[in-house]
Each structure stands twice: as C-alpha cells, then as structure tokens.
Amino acid sequence: MFGDIMGMMGKLKETQKKVQETKERLNTVLIDEQSSDGLLKVTLTANREIKSIHIDDSLLQDKEQLEDYLVLTLNKAIEKATNVNETELAAVAKEGMPNIPGMDAFMK
C-alpha cells in the first residue's frame, strides 16, 4: 500500500517538473496574429507575453481606429496562445495521472 503511495508521489513530482518545463518551453513558442487588412501585427508567446507589435503608419492618424485594431487583434492572439498553452499543459498533466478506470471521461 505504501509503495503505491510513494510511487504516486514520485510520479506527481515528476509531473510537476514536466509541467514547469513545459511552461518554460511555451515562452519560446511564438503566436503571430494580424488584423484582417494586415495593418496591425502582434507576436506573443504561448504564455501570453507580448513580444512585438507592428503598427502601420496609416493607423496612427486615428486613435479610435488604432485602439479598435489593438483590442481585436490582441484578443485573437491571446485566444490562440491560450489554446496552445492549455493543450500543451493538459497533455503533460494527463501523462502524469495515475491510470484510474473511467478518468479519461473527465479529462476531455
């Protein structure tokens, strides 16, 4: 009985380490997004850290338009980054879960 618990604790620590390594790796995964007309381009990491923003000069003439572009484009990029982040972390966490019959239904 205690062997099983110790084995599970070891697997939990290993999973925690893999999750941390995955989070660090996601800092290097870049997500690019742009407005539909290409006038605004943003790049962020899969951990949702903004790395760059490129704004076409034509957008600098209209503050409201630029704000709208930023909101829309950043939200799309954040959504993509969040999907990548959650998928990667869920895969690592699932690997570390003990094999309990019926648990697959809860992991979907």
UniProtKB/TrEMBL annotation:
Task: Provide this UniProt record's keywords sorted from A to Z.
Answer: Coiled coil, Cytoplasm, DNA-binding
Enumerate the subcellular locations listed in this protein's record, separating them with semicolons.
Cytoplasm, Nucleoid
User: Where are the annotated coiled coils located?
Assistant: 5-32
Which InterPro entries does this entry report, sorted A to Z? YbaB-like_sf, YbaB/EbfC
State a single Pfam family of this protein.
YbaB_DNA_bd
Is-annotated flag, keyword Cytoplasm? Answer: yes
Q: Does the keyword Coiled coil apply?
A: yes
Where is this protein primarily located? cytoplasm
Spell out the subunit comment: Homodimer.
Family named by the database record? Belongs to the YbaB/EbfC family.
Functional note: Binds to DNA and alters its conformation. May be involved in regulation of gene expression, nucleoid organization and DNA protection.
Instruction: Please state what the protein is called.
Output: Nucleoid-associated protein ACFSJE_03095
